[in-house]
Structures are given as C-alpha cells and as structure tokens.
C-alpha cells in the first residue's frame, strides 16, 4: 500500500486544515474521520 502522500510537503495543507477544523469545532482528532476521504479514493 502506498502512503497517502508521497511528498510530505503536499500533506501539510491537509494536516493544517484538519487541525483547524478540530480547533474550530472543539472536537477531538479522530484519524479515521480525518483521513476517510483519502481511504475511499485509494479503494476505488
């Protein structure tokens, strides 16, 4: 299985967006929720 992001610099905006969403809504980080849209695109 290939990593979701081969280039770490492409992952940074996604990580920042996920963390911003957690802070804005006051929710805890959940890896399954945060990266579920990537898992669906890899399964296709």
Percent strand equals under 5%
Largest sheet: none
Overall radius of gyration: 11 Å
Shape: flat
SSE sequence, one letter per element: HHH
What is the structural class? mainly alpha
Measured distance between first and last alpha carbons: 13 Å
Question: Count the strands?
Answer: 0
The whole-number mean of residue pLDDT values reads 78
Helix proportion of residues, in percent? 55-70%
Structural domain tally: 1
Residue runs with pLDDT of under 50 for 5 or more positions = none
Characterization of the model:
With 44 residues, the chain is mostly helical. It has one domain (8-43). Helix content is 68%, strand content 0%. It has helices spanning 8-25, 31-34, 36-43. It is flat, with a radius of gyration of 11 Å. The protein starts with 7 loop residues before the first helix and ends with a helix. 0% of the residues are buried.
Keywords:
single chain; 44 residues; mainly alpha; flat
Summarize the structure.
By secondary structure, this protein is an all-alpha fold.
Question: How do the helices and strands line up, and which of them pair or pack?
Answer:
Blueprint: H1 8-25, H2 31-34, H3 36-43
